Amino acid sequence: MERYAAALHASGVGKGDRVAIQLPKRMEVLFLHFAILSLGAITLPLNPSFRAGEVEYFLSDSGSSLFVTDEQRFASAESEVRGLREVRTLLVDGAQREGADSLTERLARTPKGFSRAYPAGDDDVALLCYTSGTTGRSKGAMITHRNLISNMLALEAAWEWTAADVLLHALPLFHVHGLNVAAQGSLYAGSTLIMHEKFEAGRAWKALEEERCTLFMGVPTMYQRLMNEWEKRERKPDLRAIRVFISGSAPLTENLFHQFESATGFRILERYGMTETGMIASNPIDPAERKAKSVGYPLGGVTVRVVGEDGSDMPPGDVGEVWIRGDNVFRGYRGMPGKTQESFVKGWFRTGDLGYQDPEDRGRLYLVGRAKELIITGGYNVYPKEVETILESHEAVRESAAIGLPDEEFGEKVVAVVVLKEGKGSLLPEALVEHCKRRLAPFKCPKQIAIVAELPRNAMGKIQKNRIPPIFLGEKLDESNSRGV
Length: 485
Known about the structure:
GMP Synthetase, Chain A, domain 3; 12-stranded mixed beta sheet; Rossmann fold; alpha/beta
């Protein structure tokens, strides 16, 4: 890491500078990240699949002074990057070229014994991570050293993480889940990391067995692919070394929770977090205390409230917006004081998530959806999660997503897209509507259902509900079976 820090220092990187990294998953990402932190600078991790226009926006908006990438990505965004005069570029592969220096050559010239470590302050920014930006401009969340340390301490205690653990790391490194939780958490605990560049279900099962892994962290999409691969195998993997399977970044369906436990004998531990806060809550490490649909209890040092529209606490069991407070909460959005102010009320961060706390289970937290996704039809509130839970209780349904669409009569109407299990393709949408009518109040039932091959998701497996409306407008019906009822 010292050599990387020296190379970055020679490139002019100092305290407070933003350094953007756009690389596929490789060890250099971790070397660069920790070298950046050691100089008091700030890491901006970028998805390697971002296009030229996206890269230009993030570099410009963040005020980055250095862009670290490879020849392939620089070539695709060269004109945009070179148009940003304040941004220098380092290539991790290849020689120096016009508009970009070579990191390899810089490392070769680096003197030994470089020691310019910066003793970071608690509230100095360590990471600048952009929100997914499914609506409006992406916002750069300023994550501090205090945020990172408090979360690592809380997770080490909650998950009983030790140096004896072996984590199979199959997540990307441009996201909080893969970089902060999985990689930094493991290194802090002193545990071993088995790194896979990309997730592949067959290879993952093989590694879990052969490397005697004790931990696996994934998103629900990964767990679904693991189950698909499990069902194909005559000889099931030997999982005796495994201690816990952990899921996050997107809601885990009740179907998948029970299917995974029934097949493997392991009850997935679901946790709750977001870019701005790191991890907020987790189900207990004791498998008997984990429950489907619940994200568990607040982590150590985190306080949770569920509040109504007027900002007052909701009675236990009633749905409201989840507000949190703790050392894990970010400093604000870079360059957006208005957005930052909107997100906080008297020191409480408004997550935008809707949920409730079970009064009969020590305030166990359940999430029902995003506040912006709340459907108001005919004056009644409909929480998408409630509709999705009923749809996924049908034996033929693998997963679903419910949204509201504009409607002249009701203001909004409930619609849903559904992915069926293998071999269940003959099921008609009308049958699913009837299934809902038997279990939901009429105003909650979908007025239209589309059966699709897969749900639209981002790189971390989160369903992108803003991409669902075109399905019902006839723009993406080539692989869908849609019926109005």
